[in-house]
Amino acid sequence: MKPIPMLDLKLEYEYMKEDIDLAIRKCLDHQKWILGPEVKELEDRISDYIGVKHCIGVSSGTEALVLALRALAIKLKGKEYFDRNDEIITTPFTFTATGDAILRAGATPVFVDIDPKTYNIDPIKIRKYLTQNSKLKTQNSTRVVGIIPVHLYGQACNMDKIMGIAKEYALFVIEDVAQAFGGIYNGSAGSPQKLGSIGMAGAFSFFPSKNLGGFGDGGMVSTNDDEVAELVRILLKHGGKDKYNVNHIGYNARLDTLQAAVLLAKFKYIDEFNEKRRKIAEIYNERLAGLGDLILPVTYHASRLTDVYHVYHQYTIRTSKRDELQVYLKDKGISTMVYYPFPLHKMKVFEGRSIIHNSFENSEKACREVLSLPIEPLQSKETTDQIISSIRNDGNYG
Ligand SMILES: Cc1ncc(COP(=O)(O)O)c(C=O)c1O
């Protein structure tokens, strides 16, 4: 039996080969490797697509978070960095980069547990922390300045609640959209909003395995705020409008022309590919329902007043026998992944550098139980069937 990978980037390349080869050929012809015309074209196309005023290409999703945060420190505090008394709320159930970016911007991450159904940060717990914190405010000088919700696995956080809290407490929101390119939130705004257009800024990743992935690292910051956009553009080029006479502590964090060219070619397929992911998820949802203690992804918010367009960066199930199931599928040649085995609050890097309060029961349980199944957009119906049959043949789920 042929092994089944989580993703098959070679297959995707074959599917888009003509467009990608042509895009690369164009770069070879013009030789404008640094901030070439493809970077601006990609920024314009994506800002139209997401519905924001500005998109700025950067070198990775991690840098997108750091640059957005640094720009906000300069805009809001008039300082290069946040300081340790500035707290930024985020989820512990995410990729390290989310919390790490907060540290790199000089602030302190405050971890808040997730909703066990959606795996996204729980707004009730955000409010709880803020209420407790504001009572303590007179005794300590820390204060919460912002929230970074992560649209995990491709599904929107409850943005109505999060934006409501942010408004009430005058906090900024930076959406971590690394896993949710093309995802939509349909909340109280009245019309559907693309993820990355709701907060003060959005941070996207073009890591090769992402829904829109390049042939290397890449990322993007989205924002409607002119000043944030301008600052991100300055910071990514060493910190000055003039490279030889700079104002800020900057980075070399440009998006490569070549990556932008590949991304432009692949962008043509993003809606089709997100739809393909959703179709595969539908088949999984139908045929894995009610098996043993398997819990399938939930695609509604608890209030049911909102609707989301989940783009299934991952199709993640959970079971108390997760490790057994992973080994069993591996023996059958089926790849699976655990996103994530450790919550951020248990990592050494955040020890003494973050605020850990209350319990993280939901995140810790998720780390023990989640398992992501292959969801290659071009995966055949037979392959999906084979994965499902293998799970059904495991005595625990038959
Ligand atoms: C939720 C989340 N945030 C941030 C990042 C960082 O993106 P990058 O790998 O492009 O730096 C990732 C990527 O893995 C991610 O999944």
Fraction in helix? 25-40%
Number of helices: 12
Shape: globular
Strand content: 5-15%
Number of strands: 13
Order of helices and strands: HHEHEHEHEHEEEEEHHHEEHEHEH
Decide which structural class fits the backbone: alpha/beta
The overall pLDDT, averaged over residues, is: 94
Ligands present? pyridoxal-5'-phosphate
Distance between the termini: 21 Å
Question: What's the CATH topology label of the largest domain?
Answer: Aspartate Aminotransferase, domain 2
Question: What is the correct CATH architecture of the largest domain?
Answer: 3-Layer(aba) Sandwich
Poorly predicted ranges: none
Q: How are strands sequenced across the largest beta sheet?
A: 1-9-8-5-4-2-3-12
Question: What is the structure about, briefly put?
Answer:
With 398 residues, the chain is α/β, with parallel strands linked by helices.
